[in-house]
Each structure stands twice: as C-alpha cells, then as structure tokens.
Specification:
This protein is α+β, with helices and mostly antiparallel strands. 17% of the residues lie in helices and 28% in strands. The protein has a single domain (2-80), classed as Beta-grasp domain (Ubiquitin-like (UB roll), Roll).
Length: 86
C-alpha cells in the first residue's frame, strides 16, 4: 500500500531523500512506518522524539509516545518537527 509522508518544521535535511510516498505492507502500523522512515534517514540525522505524529488529520501524540494506529492505503502520515523562535 502507499502512504503519503509529510514532514514539517525543522530537520528537513533528515528526510530530504525520503520519498513523498512510502510503499508499505498492508496492515502496517504507524510504528512500523516510523521504523522504516528512521532507516531511510542519514546516520545521525534522525527526527527528534518530540515530533508530533498525525495520520490523515488525527493527532496521535509524539514519536516517543503515540497512540497505536494501523495505516490504510492513501493515508497521510504527518510528522511535525518542533521549531523555536518567535
């Protein structure tokens, strides 16, 4: 199945080589998708645990602590990296 990946906030360099759409096995969980994303990040440039995670408009929590969710074809997995400043 294909899932669209959107990363916002800082750490664009960590995901610049990750495709906009991930091809994952049917019934893949958010945890499995996140593991696949981490494997695609350059070494030492992973996403911070404080990134917010949402699936198709539903907020699940952070990378470190989020609600379990099974992904479906066409879902949008959004990772919102924290930003600082004002």
């Amino acid at each position: 199945m294909k899932v669209r990946l959107v990363v916002t906030g800082r750490r664009y360099d960590a995901v610049e080589k990750i495709p906009e759409h991930l091809t994952l096995p049917e019934g893949c969980s958010v945890d499995e998708a996140l593991e696949a994303i981490v494997r695609l990040c350059p070494e030492g440039k992973g996403l911070p645990d404080s990134c917010l995670v949402a699936v198709s408009g539903t907020h699940l929590g952070t990378l470190r602590r989020h609600k379990p969710c099974v992904l479906s074809e066409g879902d949008e997995l959004v990772l919102i990296a924290p930003v600082a400043g004002g």
